[in-house]
Amino acid sequence: MSVLRSLLTAGVLATGLLWATAASTTPQMAQENAEGRWVVTQQRSADKACLDCHKPDQEGMHGTHAEVINPNNNLPVTCTNCHGNPGPDHREGVKDVMRFNNPMYTVEQQNSVCLSCHLPEQLQKAFWPHDVHVTKVACASCHDLHPKQDTMKVLTDKGKVKICVDCHSDQRNNPDFNPAAVKLRKEQP
Fold first, then answer.
1. Do the beta carbons of residue 102 and residue 109 sit within 8 Å?
2. What average pLDDT does the segment 37-42 reach?
3. Is residue 15 part of a domain?
4. Cα–Cα distance for residue pair 70/144, rounded to 1 Å
5. How many domains does the chain have?
6. Does the chain have fewer CB atoms within 10 Å around its N or its C terminus?
7. Would residue 24 count as lying in a domain?
8. Per-residue confidence at 110, pLDDT binned at 50, 70, 90?
9. Structural domain harbouring 150
């Protein structure tokens, strides 16, 4: 009986040791926070999860941002760099990730994402309206964010002026004009 008890004890100890070793080599899925509540940590990449629903089209979802480096961390730009991390209720349309050209976000909220990488001084040097509009109109109102080629970069000067005139006419004629939700009119050069 004592041999059987010794074998059983050794088996329980060995199983406990295996469990302890496995727990220390796998990432923790939950940790207790300062308030004594358990917080579950996400185990999959949020950026890869984006592509489960938001499939890239033929031209590529990331366009000009596809191969650039984030100056803040010297890593490639990802979905979550610009849109933030989706929460569990993301599919229900909650305000958890940045949606550009969406009136639920102010111009300041939308542009602060762009200005985390694009410096205002460089933008002003590139094209003077940046300086005038950076606090009044969302960047995504004029710039396409995901296609292979940003429409603004291929417009002629005449095409750019037409966009200015059209937008300022809308602003003057529409009492409900919302600069956080202005859509670029696609004019070809």
1. no
2. 67
3. no
4. 18
5. 1
6. N
7. no
8. very high
9. 47-173
Report the distance separating Cα 97 and Cα 141, nearest Å: 18
- Residue 46, number of CB atoms within 10 A of its CB: 16
User: Is 179 part of a structural domain of the chain?
Assistant: no
DSSP string covering the chain: -HHHHHHHHHHHHHHHHHHHHHHHHSPPSEEE-TTS-EEEPP-S-HHHHHHHHS---TT-SSGGGTTPEETTTTEE--HHHHH----TTGGGT-TTS--TT-TTS-HHHHHHHHTTTS-HHHHHHH-THHHHHTTTS-HHHH--SSSSS-HHHH--HHHHHHHHHHHHHHHHH-TT--GGG--------
**CA 135 – CA 132 distance, rounded (Å):** 8
pLDDT of residue 95: 76
Question: What is d(CA 141, CA 4) in angstroms, rounded to the nearest whole number?
Answer: 77
pTM for the whole thing? 0.64
Q: Which of 121, 119, 93 is nearest to 105 (CA)?
A: 93
Q: Which of 167, 180, 184 is nearest to 102 (CA)?
A: 180
Beta bridge partners of 108: none
- Can you read off the two tokens belonging to residue 52? 């489960």
pLDDT at 8 over 80: no
